[in-house]
Amino acid sequence: LFSLQNYPLYIRSVPTENELKFHYTVHTSLDVVDEKISAMGKALVDQRELYLGLLYPTEDYKVYGYVTNSKVKFVMVVDSSNTALRDNEIRSMFRKLHNSYTDIMCNPFYNPGDRIHSRAFDTMVNSMMMQMC
Amino acid sequence: ITEVCGAKRVGYFGPAQFYIALKLIAAAQSGFPVRIESIKNELPLPRFMALKNDTEVRYGTPAEFHGVKFQVPHATLEKNSYKRTDEGDKQEPKSPPMSPICSPPASPSTYQRVPLSYGYGKARSGLEQQHGAPYEVRHSTHQQDGPSSGNYGAKSALTCSTPNRSLSVEREQQDSSLDDPWRITEEQRDYYINQFRSLQPDLNAFISGSVAKNFFTKSKLPIPELSHIWELSDVDCDGALTLAEFCAAFHLVVARKNGYQLPETLPETLLPEYLQAACLKPMRDCALFDSYSEPLPGSQQPRDFSRTEKSSAGEVPDNSALLQDGKKDDKQALKVSTTLKMIPKEFQHLTVKTAAQESNALRARPRSRSYSSTSIEDAMKKGEEPPTPPPRPQKSHSRASSLDLNKIFQQNTQAVRSGWLPPPPPALPPRPSVSQTEQPSEVELHPQMNRPPSQAEENSSAKKEVVLSQPPSKPARRKLRTEAQGLETPELSPTINVTSSLPAVKPHLPVQKQSSKQKRAIQTAIRKNKEANAVLARLNSELQQQLKEVHKERIALETQLEQLRPVTVL
C-alpha cells in the first residue's frame, strides 16, 4: 500500500524466505504503476481504470496494481504457481483492500500519510492472504 | 501506616500501597496492630468520617485488596474533605479529580464488585501514579478547574449535578452482581449522554469525526489507542458517532484509563444496537458477557465457561452461547422484547465483527433468530453452549418449535456428554403430561416478537412438549417431520430426526396472555424441560448405542450366512 508520494504505508507478506525480494519487487513495480498512471493522461479516471492489471510478469510471480483516485497505490505480488487466481479474484481483492482503506480513512485519528496500524485492516489482509495460500 | 504500606519507601501511594493502607486503617480501627500481617485478617471496612454509606455497604468481604468505593453524592457537592482518624491525610490534592463518581482502580479480583465508573480521576490514578490513590471524591467538587484535565472537569462539573446519581450508584452496585466491565452502567450512560449533548445538542444526530477527535484527545490517551477505540466503536465506519457509538467509545476510553486493555473487537454490551435499546430501556439485569475482551485481569472469574469458550474458538458458536446465556438472563428481566430484538442484532454484529467488519449484511438473519434463541436460553440455564440458531421465519410456529427441538436435543446430547445433568431414568415421562403440555404450548407457540412474554412461554412449553412426548405421539411426529423437512435447519442431524418432529403444534390456536403467571410457568417449564431433555438425550444416546450393536450383530450374522451358504449348497 503506497501513498501519494510513493512511500509505503503498509507492507505485508506471507512469511517466506526471500521476503526482501518481494519488497524490492514491489518498489520497482511502482515505476510501472507511475508509467501507467501518466499514460492515462487527462482522461477521467474511473473505477475501471483504477485496476491496473498485470504489471509485470517475471519468472516466478506476477505483480498487480491498483490505484485510487487519491493516488494511493496498492501493489500485489502473487506466485505464478498460483494459476488458479483469475483476474476477477484479483479485482475483488483489490476492492476489498480499497474498502478497508476507506474505513481506515474514516477514523479521525488517522492522518493520511501515517503508517497504517489498524488492527481491523491487519486482520482483513491476513485473511485475504490465507485465502490465497 | 504510611510507612508500613510502603508509601514512604516508594514515595507515593500507588494502588497497592493504597489498598494496603486501607486495610491497615481497618485493622487499626478494629484494634489490630498495624502490621503487614494484620491485613490478612478478616477486617471490617475502614471507617472514614463524613463519608456516606460507602464501604460498609458494598464491600463486606475480605479480599486481598478492597476495592473501596467512595460515593460522591452529587447533592453533597458542597461537602468538604473527610477526616481520617488514624493517619495522615492521604487525600491527594495533587490529583485534581474530575469524575463525579470515583472508584479507585480496582484490583482485578475486586473489580467484580466495582462497576466501572466515570473515573477520569480514577483514570488518572492509573496514569499518574505519582498522585496515588484517587480520593477525588471530596476534592472533585472543589478542584474541577484543575490543571490537567480542565476540559473534562468542566464537563463533569456540568454533568455531575444530578442529585439522584448517588442513589443510582448505590442501586447500580448492588445490581451489578454479574459484573462486566464492558457494560455501561446507568450513571455512566447518563454521563455519556450529557457529554454527547454538550458536543451535539441533538441526541439523534451524529458527532462528526473531528469534533469527536478533539474530545477524545482530551482524555490524553495515546493516538494509536484512540484510533483503535474509534475503529472499535464506529461500527458503520462512517466517520461519525451516533449516540450509541459515542457511548461505546467513551466507555472504552474510560476503561482504558482505568487500566483495562482494549479488546480486539467490540464487546457485546457496547454494540450500538444494544446500547440503543438499552438507552431506551435500561436493562441492568443483562448479564451479557464480554466474550471478546482481552484477558481482563481476572474480572470475570464467575464466567469461567465463557472464558473457556472464548479461548476455544471465540467464534460464532461461542458468541451464540454467550449471547444466549445473556439472553436467558435478559429474559428474566422485564424487558424481554427489546432484548430479543437487540440481541439478535447483537449476535449478528458479533458475527460481523469476528468476520472482520463486513457491513451489516447479516442484519436480516438475526431478527428471525430471536425466537429460537429465547427458547435456547430457557434451556440453557446452566450456561451450556447452544448451537447457532438458524434464522427462522416468524410465521411458521410449528417449524419454529421443531427447530427449537433440534437445538434442544443437540444441546442435550452435549449436556449428556458433558455430564452436567444427573443421569435420568430411561423411563419416558407419562403421557398425560404430554397432552397437558400440548395445551399451553399450542397456545403459546406464536413466535412474534411483539409478544415476548408469551413467546417465552411458547418456547419453554414447546420444548417441554417436544421433550416429553417422545415416541407416544407418533402421528404428531410424522406430521412434524414433514414440516421439519422443509425447514432451513442447518443443524438437522439424523439423530435428532426422531425427536425433531415431536411438538404437535397447532399454530392457529390463540395465544393466552398470562403475563402474570408467565414467570412461574416459565420457570417450572424450564425445569421440566431440562429434566425431560436429559431423559431424552440419554435415551437417544442409548438407542444409538443399541443401533450400533444391532448393526454389528447383523453384519456378523450376514457373514456367517455367507460362510454357511456354500456349505448347505454343497
UniProtKB/TrEMBL annotation, chain A:
Location(s), subcellular: Cytoplasm, Perinuclear region; Endoplasmic reticulum; Golgi apparatus
Domain of life: Eukaryota
UniProt main location, coarse: cytoplasm
GO cellular component: endoplasmic reticulum; Golgi apparatus; perinuclear region of cytoplasm
Gene3D superfamilies: 3.30.450.70
Alphabetized UniProt keyword annotations: Cytoplasm, Endoplasmic reticulum, ER-Golgi transport, Golgi apparatus, Transport
Membrane-crossing residue ranges in chain numbering: none
BP-aspect Gene Ontology terms: endoplasmic reticulum to Golgi vesicle-mediated transport
Family: Belongs to the TRAPP small subunits family. Sedlin subfamily.
Name of the protein in question: Trafficking protein particle complex subunit 2-like protein
Protein's organism: Pardalotus punctatus
Lineage of source species: Eukaryota, Metazoa, Chordata, Craniata, Vertebrata
Automatic annotation (TrEMBL), chain B:
Coiled coil: 522-560
UniProt xrefs under InterPro entries: EF-hand-dom_pair, EF_Hand_1_Ca_BS, EF_hand_dom, EH_dom
Region (Disordered): 76-157, 292-329, 358-401, 416-498
Domain of life: Eukaryota
UniProt xrefs under PROSITE patterns: EF_HAND_1 (PS00018), EF_HAND_2 (PS50222), EH (PS50031)
Occurrences of domain EF-hand (ranges): 221-256
Biased composition annotated in UniProt, kind: Pro residues: 94-107, 421-432
Name the record gives this protein: REPS2 protein
Gene name linked to the record: Reps2
